[in-house]
Q: What sequence folds into this?
């Protein structure tokens, strides 16, 4: 799920942000008007591609993050983090399966931190691992209080985690201690956990949260109060119905668009959406400060079923699996 793009830290109060988040979760929405997609024509200029039928670089790439002139990919098949330069050349590869130093078990997210560090959210080993120049430079423990972490936003002194549990938004310090926690906005007792899955992205001073199956997104602009933009996703059906069978089995009834990933860069939220009816992928663009819809880019045919993305001021990076695992990096106009 995740996709968090961290650049630098800014001294803010995590606790006050979570308090605001909890408050807007109970408030009326700014707008319930459904957005109709306005597709903006775009020329997709492929900078480089890694992988494909004859390439064995990737076994099972899960997550991609792009920042400035670097692209990072987590390959779950290799249990390794790979870092590429702006031409697609491999700078370094690090990691293997296990529980020791430099080893990984069940990785749920990757993110850039300050100084070019890359952090790996290793839920299986209960830790965040910071990597630079192909070696471990930082370790943050994850205790039982963090629940089951799925995604993260990296700061210099603290880390925001999206987890499974009754308080899904957790903030920990560098010792792994929980310093703040809160619930998901708009999610009440009538919304099933399957319907309220979410993705987060950004930096400590500007970030966003989007619900995967419908229910809109929440923006946190730099220097602004948290803003609510529920039902501000193209053709958003709202939270889906969940059909229950037995004690534990559940399935979604509705077949609306899926939010695959979200990125935040320079005051803009980029929401990657897959339209199951059209079998096409899109990147919807919104202004973070006021939630204004800017338009949509239809992904090129070779990337229409991309299952993860990351957008920076220079590149758009996408991972796809069909017909074989590949990383596609396009130039940002």
A:
């Amino acid at each position: 799920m995740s996709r968090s793009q961290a650049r630098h830290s800014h001294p803010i109060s995590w606790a006050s942000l979570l308090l605001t988040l909890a408050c807007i979760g109970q408030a009326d929405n700014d707008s319930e008007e459904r957005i109709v997609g306005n597709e903006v024509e775009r020329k997709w200029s492929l900078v480089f591609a890694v992988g494909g039928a004859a390439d064995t670089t990737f076994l099972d790439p899960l997550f991609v993050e792009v920042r400035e002139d670097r692209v990072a990919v987590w390959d779950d098949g290799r249990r390794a983090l790979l870092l590429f330069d702006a031409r697609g050349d491999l700078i370094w590869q690090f990691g293997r399966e296990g529980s020791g130093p430099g080893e990984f078990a069940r990785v749920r997210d990757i993110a850039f931190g300050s100084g070019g560090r890359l952090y790996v959210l290793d839920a299986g080993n209960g830790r965040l691992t910071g990597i630079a120049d192909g070696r471990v430079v930082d370790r943050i423990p994850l205790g039982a209080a963090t629940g089951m972490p799925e995604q993260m936003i990296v700061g210099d002194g603290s880390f925001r985690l999206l987890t499974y549990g009754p308080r899904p938004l957790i903030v920990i310090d560098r010792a792994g201690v929980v310093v703040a926690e809160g619930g998901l906005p708009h999610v009440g007792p009538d919304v099933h956990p399957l319907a309220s899955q979410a993705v987060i992205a950004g930096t400590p001073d500007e970030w966003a949260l989007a619900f995967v199956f419908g229910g809109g997104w929440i923006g946190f602009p730099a220097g602004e109060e948290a803003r609510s933009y529920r039902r501000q996703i193209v053709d958003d059906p709202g939270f889906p119905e969940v059909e229950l069978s037995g004690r534990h089995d559940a399935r979604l009834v509705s077949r609306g668009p899926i939010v695959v990933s979200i990125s935040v860069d320079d005051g803009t939220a980029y929401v990657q959406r897959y339209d199951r009816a059209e079998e096409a992928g899109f990147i919807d663009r919104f202004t973070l400060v006021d939630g204004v819809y800017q338009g949509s880019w239809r992904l090129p045919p070779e990337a229409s079923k991309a299952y993860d993305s990351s957008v920076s001021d220079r590149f758009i990076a996408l991972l796809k699996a069909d017909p074989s695992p590949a990383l596609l990096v396009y130039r940002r106009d």
